[in-house]
Design goal:
alpha+beta, 3-stranded antiparallel beta sheet, 53% helix, elongated
Length: 265
């Protein structure tokens, strides 16, 4: 979880649910509630066909949006998620308005068609977003209740595609270093130091590390204070940390992070 934001919101299946449920919900809702006036805007004779086309436009808009949401290394929270959902409605509304204005040739300015599009899309899709969000929250809650020992004390590392790659207990991690588009996780397993190379970035794991007691000691390093044996300074004045594990390199400590780290020892 990131700042209390459920990690399930970043997985592939929820994005697929958005792509499928939103246009289907819009089509069904508008088909059943013609009293809202959508049939007047689209015309009663070809209402079903035109409603299907608009639903396909929504499908395309949400598909593009969810691909970006899934692949971009975003720092997620509830505010960003709500903003993203609203942006999807606005984005889809632009293309629905173009269809109404250009293809259907409605005698109205484009921005009036855009206002109608945003009105109908926001009026219906807000219910779909709430249903999806509540479903994901219930799933997350059920997952915690079913596996409390896993959700409470383990660190889950996801790659750049948000696929779960490795799960570790925080106290087993010695340090994490960054190298270009990868992070190297050094941890202890069966009294041996092991390394796991993860396709990710320090920015992507920043909150996960902070929530589990790891401390930033350098621009490219996170360190576990519980494994720091001593902080030293070499002849050139460069500070580094010695760890309590054998055959592990000395970890550089920047002046920016030295005081905070030393206060935790």
């Amino acid at each position: 979880m990131m700042n209390g934001f459920p990690s399930v919101f970043r997985r592939f299946v929820p994005q697929l649910l958005h792509v499928i449920i939103l246009p289907v919900f819009f089509f069904t809702f508008m088909l059943l509630h013609r009293s809202l006036g959508m049939d007047v805007l689209l015309g009663s004779e070809w209402f079903g066909v035109r409603l299907t086309i608009i639903s396909c436009i929504i499908f395309g808009g949400v598909l593009v949006s969810r691909l970006l949401y899934y692949y971009l290394p975003l720092k997620l929270n509830y505010s960003l998620y709500i903003f993203w959902c609203l942006s999807e409605i606005v984005f889809s509304s632009f293309f629905v308005a173009l269809y109404i204005w250009l293809v259907l040739g409605k005698p109205m300015p484009y921005f009036e068609a855009l206002a109608y599009s945003f009105k109908y899309l926001s009026l219906t899709l807000v219910f779909a977003y709430v249903i999806i969000a509540l479903s994901m929250r219930l799933y997350e809650y059920h997952e915690k209740e079913t596996h409390p020992e896993q959700s409470a004390s383990r660190m889950r590392f996801y790659d750049h595609l948000h696929n779960l790659k490795i799960v570790l207990m925080p106290h087993t991690i010695l340090y994490i270093s960054a190298e270009e588009n990868y992070v190297n996780i050094y941890y202890v397993e069966q009294n041996k130091v092991r390394e796991y190379v993860l396709r990710s970035s320090m920015r992507a794991i920043d909150e996960l590390c902070q929530e589990n007691g790891l401390v930033r000691c350098h621009r490219s390093f996170y360190i576990n204070p519980a494994h720091v044996k001593v902080l030293r300074k070499d002849r050139d004045g460069i500070m580094y940390a010695e760890l309590d594990a054998d055959d592990v390199r000395h970890i550089p400590v920047s002046k920016t992070y030295y005081e905070r780290l030393s206060n935790m020892l």
